[in-house]
Amino acid sequence: MLGTTIKIDVESECNPSSPTRQFKRIYVCLAPLREGFKLCGRELLGLDGCFMKGIYPGQILTAVGVDSNNGIYPVAYAIVESENTNSWTWFLEILANDLDLTSNSNFTFMSDRQKGLIPAIQKVFPNVEHRYCARHIEENMKQKWKGQAAKNLYWKCVYATTPQTFNKAMKQVFTENKELYDWLKEIPPRHWSLSHFTGRALSDLQLNNMCEVFNRQLTPGRDLPIISCLEFIREYLMKRIVKVHMKIAKCKGPLTPNVTVSFKKIKKDATKCNVIWNGATKYQVSGPNQEQYVVTVDQRSCTCRMWDLTGIPCKHAVACIFDMGEHGLDDGVPEKWVDKVYWLETWKNVYAHTIDPINGQEEWAPSPWPTKLTAPKHHVQIGRPKKNRKKSAVEIELLSQKVGKAKKLPRKGRTVTCDICKQPGHNKRSCKKRKTGDIREAGGLGTQVDATDAAGCSGV
What are the percentages of helix, strand and coil residues in the chain, rounded to 5? Predict the structure, then answer.
């Protein structure tokens, strides 16, 4: 595809005149995805890595954005030798060129604080907003502070939207758990609390879910060789755009489906607010929970900061828009005050860029480059190759909760007990005593049943 960026890095070679180079890593940014991301207008990318599962161990690095419907929008990906500062720096430098980002760009990244990623971002983008996945911080917290009490204290700080409410929540943490307070203070709140996020990204996302969703879709391709894995990713992205087209065709707008649903709830909550106009462009709004904020309509801002963070009018702002409609100051339609990022028309324009199909490998033209690439470094792993990633503490807890509700343990992880000899570790089909005829009745009668006799009685 014209405009697609593909960068290949090779291992250093002592002999410059050697006709071969050993493959090290590859970066891919498909032109349609890059152009669609720029049209979306949300300067937010989640960064993550997942391991390859084939004979060439390595990592798939991904950069995934959020589209107008709050769905995932993959932008770039790479296969590297390992997840470290060097590979992340290489990935981010190429990504910066693709997205026209400079070292002074006001962009927003989100991550799980992967190995080497934080120093790489600080080196390539020293002025960006770097959000840490709140769920990942919680997992680290649970290693020392377990239980619902510590969890509630932490998430109260995460969900605080103003510095005042954040300080109040942290004060409660200090009162109830001084050690947890000291631990949280070591992580600057600009990385994990809504109260310190900027509104540049037009998103209140606090979890790196977009990358996790994308990585889950790549699971079948991570077993494949490198070229086949890259083809799997490209085909998935091509098919995904078609699925979004089918969903767009059913929508009538003016907003995207997911935003329409969430905005409907905001409008319902707005009817419970009381509005006082100052005669100019500001309103004092009080809510049912005794909260009181100031809305500046012409600046599209509310002191609760939700309008500033997301670009979607909060319930306080919608109450003001309703009041303006009642007094003839506006038509009273709150949807037109929603940022154009969430418009159905914007969503259509983003996915108007499609990925073209290509011929099979046997039809590919030979590369004119004289240097030949050889297979990357690899080693045979000890034991059976691991296919599944390790579950986090949060996932294990959620699984245990599901088991508790179902009152039944899943088959995986259970110890099998033989129904014949009552010994653990095997079932009756593989029981050795059954094969040798040394089987005794469970009722304790002491009768020995021969295997041939048992087979002969099957027809009775």
Answer: 45, 15, 40
Task: Tell me the two tokens of residue 304.
Answer: 């609760």
Could you give the 3-state DSSP secondary structure of residue 415? coil
pTM for the complete prediction?
0.81
Helices (H) and strands (E) in the chain, counts: 16, 14
SS3 215: helix
Query: H or E element: which one contains 22?
Result: strand 20-29
Q: What are the φ and ψ backbone dihedral angles of 302, each rounded to 5 degrees?
A: -135, 145
The three-class DSSP label of residue 5 is strand
> Going residue by residue through the chain (460 aa), what tens digit of pLDDT does each one get?
789 999 999 988 777 778 888 899 999 999 999 999 999 999 999 999 999 987 777 899 999 999 999 999 999 999 999 999 999 999 999 999 999 999 888 899 999 988 899 999 999 999 999 999 999 999 999 989 988 999 999 999 999 999 999 999 999 999 999 999 999 999 999 999 999 999 999 999 999 999 999 999 999 999 899 999 999 999 999 999 999 999 999 998 899 999 999 999 999 999 999 999 999 999 999 998 889 999 999 999 999 999 999 999 999 999 999 999 999 999 999 999 999 999 999 999 999 999 999 999 889 888 888 888 888 876 555 555 565 656 655 566 666 665 555 555 555 556 788 888 888 888 888 887 776 665 444 333 333 333 333 333 433 3
CB 421 within 8 A of CB 412: no
Q: How far apart are the C-alpha atoms of 208 and 194, rounded to whole Å? A: 14
Are the C-beta atoms of 389 and 51 separated by less than 8 Å? yes
The long-range contacts involving 215-221, CB below 8 angstroms and separated by at least 24 positions, are 215/48, 215/50, 215/60, 215/62, 218/50, 218/60
Using CA atoms, how far apart are residues 391 and 201, in angstroms rounded to an integer?
Answer: 30
Single-letter amino acid code for the residue at 345: E
41 phi and psi angles, rounded to 5 deg:
85, 10
Q: Which residues contact 410 (CB under 8 A, 6 or more apart)?
A: 403
Structure tokens at 196: 């310190």
Among 300, 370, 367, 301, which residue's Cα sits nearest to residue 337?
A: 300
CB 142 within 8 A of CB 78: no
Q: How far apart are the first and last CA of the chain?
A: 71
How many residues make up the chain in this entry?
A: 460
Cis amide leading into 57 (omega within 30): no
Q: Residue 297 in contact with residue 286, Cβ under 8 Å?
A: no
